[in-house]
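Hi all, a correction to my earlier message: I attached the wrong file for 2-keto-3-deoxygalactonate kinase. Here's the right sequence:
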Amino acid sequence: MTGRTTEQHMEHGKQGDAALIALDWGTTSLRAYLFDAAGKVLDTRVSTAGIMNLPVPAEEGGFDAAFEEACGMWLAAAPSLPVLAAGMVGSAQGWVQAPYVETPAGEDALVAGIVKVRAASGANIAVVPGVLEPGALPNVMRGEETQIFGALGAQEERETALIGLPGTHAKWVVVEGARIARFYTFMTGEVYAALKAHTILGRTMKHPAAPDTAAFLRGVMVAREHGSAGLLATAFSTRTLGLTDQLAADEQPDYLSGLVIGHELAGLEAVLARRDVALAACAPQLIGADALCERYRLALAQFGCTAAQIVREATERGLWRIAVRAGLVGAAV
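and the right structure:
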């Protein structure tokens, strides 16, 4: 399957002002940014050529082909542009493996762990490593670390920060002293999709015409108030409430979404409490798709956490910050 690249915008300046190419290269997509010397995005290109969806197999030059398709026009105009990449492109299945750095991990550790790969075009790509939290139950991230440092922005002076990244594998990250101290991964999105598509719960569901916030919040509250036995116990209520005419078929998908997110937040609340931190007293920063982050913001409010904020352009800011720290570009004046 061929990765198709499309130009998104060229709003902030001219390509002749370009200073950096930065890539957010994940499993299913590639997003390329062209920055000017002030750290502003000049142009963006998006491709479906994630590492598992290259134009041709990796052993036949798939990474080179995807890179050329996304960035060839920019490099043709300015062949000496530095290139930085983050995400699954640095995994064992990526273009080059950038080994994890261990927590606590700051920007300097990420820069020290950068691994370079040379493209067929001659461009040298600096690949950002992921982060490993070692232990009896190790935890890893790759790509999120860049977004986290982008979200910190002017918040570095804060002693601690709680950052949430909703998605297929949701992550909650505790930052201390501008370093990733520890983090928790919840397979919320993947479990929701599996329950909906591959269990009996999906048999009675009907896709709603529009998101049902009331049904979603009902699920969140069930997880919070009746979830002590865990998701394996409460998930079946999606079916039984339907069978007893207490939950309409088109309410069930949002109810189940609320359940799984509610259990995630209950788990987060519990692990924070072990360190004498109250979730309700936190002001989390949320990174991700606006609609999903808004769902999390509503769900967090049910746990008494009303100060959550959605952070936008965290990826762009994080890529630029790491590029500056790595000396690929000068700091914006």
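Sorry for the mix-up. The mean pLDDT is 94.
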